[in-house]
Hints:
This protein has one domain: Spore Coat Polysaccharide Biosynthesis Protein SpsA, Chain A. With about 290 residues, it is α/β, with parallel strands linked by helices. Helix 6 packs parallel to helix 10 and helix 9 runs parallel beside helix 10. The structure holds guanosine-5'-diphosphate (GDP) and magnesium ion. The site of magnesium ion (MG) has 5 residues, from loops.
Amino acid sequence: MRGGIGRAPDAAAMREARTSVVIPMLNEARNLPHVLPRVPEAAFEVILVDGGSRDASCREARRLLPDVRVIPQTRRGKGNALECGFRAARGDVIVFLDADGSTDPAEIPTFVAALLDGADFAKGSRFMRGGGSSDITPLRRQGNRVLCGIVNGLYGTSYTDLCYGYNAFWRSLLPALGVADDPRAAAATAPWGDGFEVETLINVRVANSGLKVVEVPSMEYERIHGVSNLNAVRDGLRVLGVIAQEHRRRAAARSSAAPMFAVDTTPHACVEHLSVPCTCMATAAA
Length: 286
Ligand SMILES: Nc1nc2c(ncn2[C@@H]2O[C@H](COP(=O)(O)OP(=O)(O)O)[C@@H](O)[C@H]2O)c(=O)[nH]1
Ligand SMILES: [Mg+2]
């Protein structure tokens, strides 16, 4: 893994990379005007996954961005919303971020640049040089640090952030994350993190797949209106639970010598149609 990104792609490269922007939203009508207009025009599509908002979020989204795709989720929680958004995405690249104004869509090109430069997974980090957060509480910061240390110890990674909701990856890697193409096949895969543990689940599965991860510095701002849906203790315990679950699964897979997930070893779809240099290549599962 390496960190630090030097450049953002121009609009033409962004367009060719066909970026699907997936945003989970729950009662964010007042925040959407600060978010949606900042999504780069070169994005291929914007998918808002609604968790049953009781305010005017869906109407506001369509007013701000007439071609936005607003889809419902199938269960409850941010993690389930992301899974639904990933399945609905049609671009080559998927970027996911929040709808509360805490993550700036203007950073999307930096994430896409990391993928075009050869990363399989571009992992946002608030705690590397160039990143920061004015949203995180001292308790959450400390919990994130401890949990991140546990994951680094178990997987030999050097992640600087574990529970951050701004990341990007090639859509072809969805099976490596445990998101099967066919929803019926999902029943056969390991449980997906439906709640706020989802980012940890993804980061652990990426680490365990031997994929090339690049950390991208990112600035997290305070949510503009409303309050967080996260509960530091309850959701911290869920994060710990998902780390333990994935660790047990890895041990079981090792003893049976069966791969945990099929990882696509062919070049990413982008290679076929991109004219910009793209060296990325999914690597085989360990
Ligand atoms: N669809 C959906 N979105 C959610 C749910 N819970 C949170 N979100 C969204 O996920 C993002 C992060 O949630 P937030 O409450 O700000 O948590 P925090 O950023 O970790 O404090 C925001 O865009 C929320 O609207 C949910 O159950 N369903
Ligand atoms: Mg937030």
